[in-house]
Amino acid sequence: MELSEKTIIITGASSGIGAAAALLFAAEGANLVLGARRQAELDRVAGQIEQSAGHARVLAGDVTEQSYNSALVELALAEFGGLDGAFNNAGVMGDTGPVPDMDSANWDRVIATNLTSAFFAAKAQIPALTERSGGALAFTSSFVGYSNGGMPGMAAYGAAKAGLIGLVQSLAIDHAADGIRVNALLPGGTMTAMAGDDPGVHAFIAGLHPMKRLAVPREIAQAALFLLSDRASFVTGGPLIADGGVSVRLV
């Protein structure tokens, strides 16, 4: 199994890509610490894992709080004796629209949830990985933060996700000698709650992709699995693009 005996934190684990990653990582042998805001949904995902003889602990909270990121690491240490990696996946799109019309509170929330939370996660997780003599971190960015051509109204989201790529590059350089790999995962359109429930919007977004469809969450989770597994042992500092070709079309 790809993650046998490894302890992994997953944020945004209550639904969508995070929940799919939790189920997949557990099937691949990982001990999991699952984080998100919604306790009931976290319990549901953990229950599925435990029913399949997997191992998962949950802690509900807000990734924009530094103390919560520290508490997730502390839970991993207390329950499983260490930390080997994390899939920092929590994020929010926020309200879209032109910058002159954007409420500053929306900007602050999008930056805090997508970018500042990653800073807090790295601060908490890297010392624990160093204690294990290395490990891997993956952060969910987006093609919108990489090649945004033709996606209007996405200033806050695009800025946060682009900043996340820059953070990942810096972390990778700073901690490669510690045996820590750090990468960004860039999904394309994916059928999650963030995509909404309007079939017309789904069809429009699917049409932007050369593959003419949206991903299902497990497809993105499989890319995250690669980044956190030993198969990616020489992969660090880069964006892994799993976007159905949309960023190529928009270049």
Task: Explain briefly what this protein structure is.
This protein is of the alpha/beta class. It has a single domain (7-189, 218-244), classed as Rossmann fold (3-Layer(aba) Sandwich), CATH 3.40.50.720. It contains eight helices and seven strands; from the N terminus they run E-H-E-H-E-H-E-H-E-H-E-H-H-E-H.
Describe the structure.
Helix 2 links the parallel strand 2 (31-36) and strand 3. Helix 3 packs parallel to helix 4 (104-131). The chain is an alpha/beta fold and 251 residues long. Strands 3-2-1-4-5-6-7 form a seven-stranded parallel beta sheet, sandwiched between helices. The chain has one domain (7-189, 218-244): NAD(P)-binding Rossmann-like Domain (Rossmann fold). The model has no long low-confidence stretch (mean pLDDT 92). The chain has eight helices and seven strands; from the N terminus they run βαβαβαβαβαβααβα. It has helices spanning 16-27, 39-51, 66-80, 104-131, 155-175, 199-208, 217-228, 246-250; strands at residues 7-11, 31-36, 55-60, 85-88, 135-140, 180-187, 239-242.
